[in-house]
Write a structure and sequence with these properties.
The chain has 12 helices and 17 strands. By secondary structure, the protein is of the alpha/beta class. The chain folds into 2 domains: 3-10 and 249-355, D-serine dehydratase-like domain (Lyase, Ornithine Decarboxylase, Chain A, domain 1, Beta Barrel); 16-237, Alanine racemase (TIM Barrel). Strands 1, 10, 11, 12, 13, 14, 15, 16 and 17 form a 9-stranded mixed β-sheet that branches. The relative contact order is 0.16.
Length: 363
Amino acid sequence: MHYQELDTPALLIDLDRMEANLNRMASVAKKCSVDLRPHTKTHKCPEIAKMQSDAGAVGITCAKLGEAEVMAEAGLDDILIANEIIGTKKFERLKDLSKKARLCVAVDSIYGAESLNAALEQDGQTLDVVIEINCGQNRAGLLPGKPALDLAQKIGQLKHVNLRGLMTHGGHSYNESSKEGIQKIGQHEGSVMVETAELLRKNGIEVETVSTGSTPTAQYCGSVDGVTEIRPGTYIFYDLTQIDLFACALKDCALFVLATVTSHPAPDRIILDAGKKALTSDPASRSGGKGGYGFLPEKNSLIRRLSEEHGIIESDAEFEIGEKVRIIPNHACVVVNMFDEMYGIRNSQVEKVFTIEGRGRML
């Protein structure tokens, strides 16, 4: 079936581009001599996670416990949940999940570590953890150095929690406007992690894993000697934001929203059947900072405004009511979470359908 026969809005994957992206990041990890543990929050699809594993990934990263459960059910058996897990009900699910996969979770407080330890003690289980470090994003995570050492020493006194190492996320790179700035953040991300790991080792604490890396910073922090692992996610598809961040070119973007022109009420206004619920309202500054909420490569046009079910283009480009158009979204991860399926396209034909089994798994 030709992709133009699909009803809209629909989510498309250019298979050639996705496969090239997958192999390119595997090569980056190999060149840096680090493990690749890709973040599945971008695609939320066990089938694609298995493709990443087949290409050399040592395991996967998930954002939420629910996502990890989906992946484990599909046979993915080495999972890092790069998030703090808090709460009795979640601890029970975590214990069940740990029976199905080699599991590791993030902690950044003694409260979290002791609570997890108490839950595990009830069944005589042990679980690996990594301490989350704040390398500059100022989200979750302890500051590098002594705060991390203090927590590591306290974790060392717990019988049912095993410290595997450290992790961080240089998410503040998304605020940078130059490639040099992103490179600097990536190198700093790697350096502070290695320094903190060395501090722990000097105090008799074993550190197996030093985990870093978003899609924009992976190649830079991964090249820092002492980093053991990178965790990029968006690289599998890329998007307009990643173009802004110098992580890819337009030709690398593999994810598209297919939409239909439903109205042409003015010469310079075109209406699509894909709005916030298909494209997200996350901004991007592609095309010289002109903004927009998605780019139509075949029309060289930006979506200028969104309502819930409408995408609004302000352009003098040629459009016809009933025409179907492809849109590169601003933020692939959020877009994927709003669809049940993705259609894999090669040579304009639908070659396979991917089920997004992890969508909506926020718990």
